[in-house]
Amino acid sequence: MLYQVVIPAAGQGKRMKAGINKQLIKLRHQPVIIHTLKVFEQDDWCQGIVMVVNEAEREQFQELLEKFQIKKVLSIVSGGAERQHSVYNGLKAVKESDFVLIHDGARPFITIEKIHELVKEANEHGAAVPAVPMKDTVKRVSQGFVDETVERSSLWAIQTPQAFRVSLILEAHERARQEGYVGTDDASLVERIGKKVKVIEGNYRNIKLTTPDDLLFAEAILSVKEER
Ligand code: CTP
Ligand code: MG
Fold it and tell me: What is the pLDDT of residues 177-204, one digit of tens each?
Protein backbone atom coordinates (compact mmCIF):
# COMPACT_ATOMS: atom_id res chain seq x y z
CA MET A 1 0.00 0.00 0.00
CA LEU A 2 1.84 3.08 -1.24
CA TYR A 3 1.98 6.58 0.23
CA GLN A 4 3.87 9.86 0.06
CA VAL A 5 5.04 11.72 3.15
CA VAL A 6 5.14 15.44 3.93
CA ILE A 7 7.85 16.32 6.44
CA PRO A 8 7.59 19.80 7.97
CA ALA A 9 11.05 20.96 9.05
CA ALA A 10 10.60 24.72 8.80
CA GLY A 11 10.19 25.59 12.47
CA GLN A 12 12.50 27.77 14.53
CA GLY A 13 12.97 25.37 17.41
CA LYS A 14 12.61 28.12 19.99
CA ARG A 15 12.05 25.75 22.92
CA MET A 16 15.19 23.77 22.04
CA LYS A 17 17.30 26.91 22.49
CA ALA A 18 20.06 25.45 20.28
CA GLY A 19 20.59 28.55 18.15
CA ILE A 20 20.05 26.41 15.04
CA ASN A 21 17.07 24.57 13.58
CA LYS A 22 16.75 21.52 15.88
CA GLN A 23 16.52 19.22 12.87
CA LEU A 24 20.13 20.07 12.06
CA ILE A 25 21.43 19.05 15.52
CA LYS A 26 23.61 15.96 15.32
CA LEU A 27 22.77 12.71 17.09
CA ARG A 28 25.49 10.08 16.64
CA HIS A 29 27.14 12.00 13.77
CA GLN A 30 23.91 12.39 11.84
CA PRO A 31 21.56 15.36 11.84
CA VAL A 32 18.15 14.65 13.35
CA ILE A 33 16.45 15.14 9.97
CA ILE A 34 18.59 12.39 8.43
CA HIS A 35 17.55 9.92 11.14
CA THR A 36 13.94 10.77 10.29
CA LEU A 37 14.37 10.63 6.51
CA LYS A 38 16.19 7.29 6.57
CA VAL A 39 13.14 5.51 7.94
CA PHE A 40 11.09 6.60 4.94
CA GLU A 41 14.00 6.01 2.56
CA GLN A 42 14.07 2.40 3.74
CA ASP A 43 10.31 1.83 3.64
CA ASP A 44 9.22 0.16 0.39
CA TRP A 45 5.71 1.59 0.75
CA CYS A 46 7.06 5.16 0.65
CA GLN A 47 6.89 6.46 -2.91
CA GLY A 48 8.23 9.91 -2.26
CA ILE A 49 9.02 12.58 0.30
CA VAL A 50 7.99 16.25 0.25
CA MET A 51 10.16 18.31 2.58
CA VAL A 52 9.12 21.68 3.94
CA VAL A 53 11.98 23.98 4.90
CA ASN A 54 12.83 27.64 5.46
CA GLU A 55 14.15 29.29 2.30
CA ALA A 56 17.26 30.37 4.22
CA GLU A 57 18.05 26.74 5.06
CA ARG A 58 17.17 25.16 1.71
CA GLU A 59 20.77 24.73 0.57
CA GLN A 60 21.85 23.22 3.87
CA PHE A 61 19.10 20.61 3.61
CA GLN A 62 19.91 19.93 -0.05
CA GLU A 63 23.55 19.29 0.80
CA LEU A 64 22.56 16.87 3.56
CA LEU A 65 20.34 14.91 1.18
CA GLU A 66 23.30 14.44 -1.13
CA LYS A 67 25.78 13.65 1.59
CA PHE A 68 23.59 10.98 3.17
CA GLN A 69 22.23 9.72 -0.15
CA ILE A 70 18.55 10.31 0.48
CA LYS A 71 16.98 9.71 -2.92
CA LYS A 72 13.24 9.75 -2.37
CA VAL A 73 12.79 13.51 -1.91
CA LEU A 74 10.49 14.63 -4.75
CA SER A 75 10.35 18.29 -3.84
CA ILE A 76 11.43 20.80 -1.25
CA VAL A 77 8.87 23.54 -0.61
CA SER A 78 8.97 26.65 1.60
CA GLY A 79 7.48 26.72 5.06
CA GLY A 80 4.96 29.17 6.48
CA ALA A 81 4.52 31.08 9.74
CA GLU A 82 2.74 28.25 11.57
CA ARG A 83 3.25 24.49 11.26
CA GLN A 84 -0.18 24.21 9.64
CA HIS A 85 0.85 26.62 6.86
CA SER A 86 4.04 24.64 6.29
CA VAL A 87 2.09 21.39 6.03
CA TYR A 88 -0.41 22.96 3.61
CA ASN A 89 2.43 24.02 1.30
CA GLY A 90 3.75 20.48 1.45
CA LEU A 91 0.36 18.89 0.75
CA LYS A 92 -0.02 20.94 -2.42
CA ALA A 93 3.16 19.29 -3.71
CA VAL A 94 1.84 15.74 -3.21
CA LYS A 95 1.08 14.27 -6.63
CA GLU A 96 -0.51 11.01 -7.77
CA SER A 97 -0.90 9.37 -4.40
CA ASP A 98 -4.02 8.15 -2.59
CA PHE A 99 -2.44 8.33 0.85
CA VAL A 100 -0.27 10.87 2.57
CA LEU A 101 1.54 10.79 5.87
CA ILE A 102 2.41 14.00 7.68
CA HIS A 103 5.39 13.56 9.96
CA ASP A 104 7.40 16.02 12.08
CA GLY A 105 11.02 16.25 10.96
CA ALA A 106 11.93 16.44 14.65
CA ARG A 107 10.54 12.94 15.42
CA PRO A 108 13.32 10.55 14.40
CA PHE A 109 12.23 7.34 16.17
CA ILE A 110 9.23 6.26 14.12
CA THR A 111 9.22 2.64 12.93
CA ILE A 112 8.24 1.17 9.56
CA GLU A 113 5.92 -1.22 11.40
CA LYS A 114 3.85 1.66 12.87
CA ILE A 115 3.85 3.47 9.54
CA HIS A 116 2.30 0.44 7.84
CA GLU A 117 -0.30 0.06 10.57
CA LEU A 118 -1.28 3.71 10.10
CA VAL A 119 -1.54 3.49 6.31
CA LYS A 120 -3.80 0.43 6.60
CA GLU A 121 -6.03 2.24 9.08
CA ALA A 122 -6.15 5.33 6.83
CA ASN A 123 -7.26 3.07 3.99
CA GLU A 124 -10.11 1.83 6.14
CA HIS A 125 -11.10 5.01 7.99
CA GLY A 126 -9.68 7.96 6.00
CA ALA A 127 -7.55 9.26 8.87
CA ALA A 128 -5.38 7.58 11.50
CA VAL A 129 -3.02 8.84 14.22
CA PRO A 130 -0.68 7.20 16.74
CA ALA A 131 -1.11 8.03 20.41
CA VAL A 132 0.08 6.96 23.84
CA PRO A 133 -1.91 7.05 27.09
CA MET A 134 -1.03 10.05 29.26
CA LYS A 135 1.24 9.11 32.14
CA ASP A 136 0.90 12.26 34.22
CA THR A 137 -2.20 13.61 35.85
CA VAL A 138 -3.44 16.58 33.83
CA LYS A 139 -4.99 19.64 35.42
CA ARG A 140 -6.37 22.81 33.92
CA VAL A 141 -4.50 25.70 35.55
CA SER A 142 -5.09 29.43 35.42
CA GLN A 143 -3.02 32.14 37.09
CA GLY A 144 -1.06 29.65 39.15
CA PHE A 145 -4.04 27.77 40.65
CA VAL A 146 -5.85 24.61 39.66
CA ASP A 147 -9.20 25.07 37.96
CA GLU A 148 -9.93 21.38 37.60
CA THR A 149 -8.42 17.92 37.32
CA VAL A 150 -9.12 16.36 33.97
CA GLU A 151 -10.14 12.69 34.02
CA ARG A 152 -7.04 10.87 32.79
CA SER A 153 -8.31 7.53 31.55
CA SER A 154 -9.56 8.96 28.26
CA LEU A 155 -6.56 11.24 27.64
CA TRP A 156 -4.01 10.29 24.99
CA ALA A 157 -0.93 12.17 23.79
CA ILE A 158 -1.07 12.38 20.00
CA GLN A 159 2.02 11.88 17.85
CA THR A 160 2.95 11.79 14.18
CA PRO A 161 3.00 10.36 11.54
CA GLN A 162 -0.64 11.10 10.92
CA ALA A 163 -2.00 9.23 7.91
CA PHE A 164 -4.77 10.41 5.61
CA ARG A 165 -6.55 9.84 2.37
CA VAL A 166 -5.15 12.75 0.31
CA SER A 167 -8.56 14.13 -0.73
CA LEU A 168 -9.75 14.23 2.92
CA ILE A 169 -6.74 16.07 4.39
CA LEU A 170 -6.68 18.55 1.49
CA GLU A 171 -10.35 19.35 2.08
CA ALA A 172 -9.72 19.72 5.83
CA HIS A 173 -6.79 22.10 5.29
CA GLU A 174 -8.70 24.15 2.69
CA ARG A 175 -11.66 24.52 5.06
CA ALA A 176 -9.43 25.55 7.97
CA ARG A 177 -7.78 28.18 5.77
CA GLN A 178 -11.09 29.59 4.58
CA GLU A 179 -12.39 29.72 8.14
CA GLY A 180 -9.19 31.10 9.70
CA TYR A 181 -8.73 28.11 12.01
CA VAL A 182 -5.23 27.14 13.13
CA GLY A 183 -4.81 23.83 14.95
CA THR A 184 -1.79 22.19 16.55
CA ASP A 185 -2.03 19.00 14.50
CA ASP A 186 -3.51 17.91 11.19
CA ALA A 187 -6.04 15.45 12.56
CA SER A 188 -7.79 18.29 14.41
CA LEU A 189 -8.63 19.84 11.03
CA VAL A 190 -10.29 16.60 9.97
CA GLU A 191 -12.16 16.34 13.29
CA ARG A 192 -13.59 19.85 12.92
CA ILE A 193 -15.22 18.98 9.59
CA GLY A 194 -17.02 16.12 11.28
CA LYS A 195 -14.91 13.19 10.06
CA LYS A 196 -13.70 10.32 12.24
CA VAL A 197 -10.03 9.90 13.11
CA LYS A 198 -8.83 6.41 14.06
CA VAL A 199 -6.39 6.23 16.99
CA ILE A 200 -3.83 3.44 17.21
CA GLU A 201 -1.45 2.74 20.08
CA GLY A 202 1.89 4.45 19.41
CA ASN A 203 5.24 4.04 21.10
CA TYR A 204 6.54 6.15 24.01
CA ARG A 205 9.92 6.27 22.27
CA ASN A 206 8.50 8.15 19.33
CA ILE A 207 9.36 11.45 21.01
CA LYS A 208 9.39 14.85 19.36
CA LEU A 209 12.65 16.63 20.09
CA THR A 210 11.29 19.78 21.68
CA THR A 211 13.38 20.88 24.69
CA PRO A 212 17.10 20.28 25.51
CA ASP A 213 16.23 17.32 27.79
CA ASP A 214 14.80 15.48 24.80
CA LEU A 215 18.33 15.23 23.38
CA LEU A 216 19.32 13.16 26.44
CA PHE A 217 16.37 10.83 25.89
CA ALA A 218 17.28 10.61 22.21
CA GLU A 219 20.85 9.53 23.02
CA ALA A 220 19.49 6.87 25.36
CA ILE A 221 17.04 5.57 22.74
CA LEU A 222 19.85 5.37 20.19
CA SER A 223 22.12 3.42 22.54
CA VAL A 224 19.41 0.82 23.14
CA LYS A 225 18.88 0.56 19.36
CA GLU A 226 22.58 -0.07 18.82
CA GLU A 227 22.69 -2.84 21.41
CA ARG A 228 20.25 -4.88 19.35
N1 CTP B 1 7.34 23.36 11.73
C2 CTP B 1 7.27 23.85 10.42
N3 CTP B 1 6.86 25.13 10.20
C4 CTP B 1 6.52 25.94 11.22
C5 CTP B 1 6.57 25.46 12.55
C6 CTP B 1 6.98 24.14 12.78
O7 CTP B 1 7.59 23.12 9.47
N8 CTP B 1 6.13 27.19 10.96
C9 CTP B 1 7.81 21.98 11.98
C10 CTP B 1 9.03 21.91 12.89
O11 CTP B 1 10.22 22.10 12.15
C12 CTP B 1 8.89 20.54 13.55
C13 CTP B 1 7.39 20.26 13.53
O14 CTP B 1 6.81 21.24 12.65
O15 CTP B 1 9.52 19.50 12.85
C16 CTP B 1 6.79 20.30 14.92
O17 CTP B 1 6.85 21.61 15.44
P18 CTP B 1 7.59 22.03 16.78
O19 CTP B 1 8.06 20.85 17.53
O20 CTP B 1 6.74 23.03 17.48
O21 CTP B 1 8.92 22.73 16.21
P22 CTP B 1 9.31 24.27 16.23
O23 CTP B 1 8.13 25.10 15.88
O24 CTP B 1 10.52 24.39 15.38
O25 CTP B 1 9.73 24.47 17.75
P26 CTP B 1 9.23 25.64 18.76
O27 CTP B 1 7.74 25.55 18.78
O28 CTP B 1 9.89 25.28 20.05
O29 CTP B 1 9.75 26.93 18.18
MG1 MG C 1 6.37 25.09 17.14
Answer: 999 999 999 999 999 999 999 999 999 9
Q: Which helix (H) or strand (E) holds 219?
A: helix 212-227
Task: Work out the average pLDDT over 171-175.
Answer: 98
Q: How many CA within 13 A on the CB side of residue 110?
A: 36
Domain that holds residue 62: 3-130+158-227
Number of domains in the chain: 1
With respect to residue 140, please indicate whether it lies within any of the assigned structural domains.
no
pTM given for the model: 0.98
The answer to whether residues 105 and 33 touch, using CB atoms and an 8 Å cutoff, is yes
Predicted complex ipTM: 0.99
For residue 104 and ligand 1, the question of a CB distance below 6 A is answered with yes
CATH number of the domain bearing residue 78:
3.90.550.10
For ligand 1, is residue 208 a contact (CB within 6 Å)?
Answer: yes
User: Does the beta carbon of 52 sit less than 6 angstroms from any atom of ligand 1?
Assistant: yes
- Centre of ligand 2 to C-alpha 44, Å, is 30
